């Protein structure tokens, strides 16, 4: 079984759609094997998103991710990395397929509700960041 990390971002927590999002994973056959509610510090968010440090959106991303609590969780199941990314939809909700999490709940490319690991290497690093 493959594991991946997902995060309900602060906008998802503020909208009170935590249960709706988690339910989508469970009804799709995935298991939530670890979960917590946290508030990231600027240092933690900067470290987590360090691969984007040179990009123009980095500071806004850090500010957004520290604007309120978020919920990192580990999803386990067959082909979970690819499947979770498909369930999330495109980063820009305007481009996300109908029925995806971002299509249904996100407001913009900056407030896009959810994060998901994009590779096995990222999943391993991100799970360890939050849970080990």
Question: Which features does this protein show?
Answer:
42% helix, four-stranded antiparallel β-sheet, alpha+beta
Q: From the alpha-carbon coordinates, what is the Rg to the nearest angstrom? A: 14 Å
Largest sheet: 4 strands, antiparallel
The CATH homologous superfamily corresponds to Nucleoside diphosphate kinase-like domain
Find the structural class using helix and strand composition.
alpha+beta
Q: Identify the overall geometry.
A: globular
Q: What would you say the CATH architecture is?
A: 2-Layer Sandwich
The proportion of residues forming helix, as a percent range, comes to: 40-55%
Mean pLDDT, as a whole number?
A: 97
In DSSP terms (H or I, runs of 4 or more residues), the helix count works out at 7
Name of the top-level CATH class: Alpha Beta
Strand content: 15-25%
Say how many strands there are: 4
CATH topology: Alpha-Beta Plaits
- The termini sit apart by 19 Å
Strand order of the largest sheet: 2-3-1-4
Provide the number of structural domains.
Answer: 1
In N-to-C order, the SSE pattern is EHHEHHEHHEH
Low-pLDDT stretches: none
Describe it for me?
The chain is α+β, with helices and mostly antiparallel strands. The chain has one domain: 2-Layer Sandwich (Alpha-Beta Plaits). Helix content is 42%, strand content 17%. It is built from seven helices and four strands; from the N terminus they run βααβααβααβα. The protein has a four-stranded antiparallel beta sheet, with helices on both faces. The relative contact order is 0.26.
């Amino acid at each position: 079984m493959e594991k991946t990390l997902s995060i309900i971002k602060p906008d998802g927590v503020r909208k009170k759609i935590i249960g709706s999002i988690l339910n989508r994973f469970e009804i799709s056959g995935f298991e939530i094997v670890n979960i917590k509610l946290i508030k990231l510090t600027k240092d933690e968010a900067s470290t987590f998103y360090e691969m984007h440090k040179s990009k123009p959106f980095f500071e806004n991303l850090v500010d957004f991710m520290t604007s309120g609590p978020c919920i990192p969780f580990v999803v386990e199941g067959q082909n979970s990395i690819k499947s979770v990314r498909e369930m999330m939809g495109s980063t820009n909700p305007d481009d996300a397929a109908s029925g995806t999490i971002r299509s249904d709940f996100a407001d913009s490319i900056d407030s896009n509700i959810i994060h998901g690991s994009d590779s096995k290497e990222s999943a391993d690093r991100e799970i360890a960041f939050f849970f080990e």
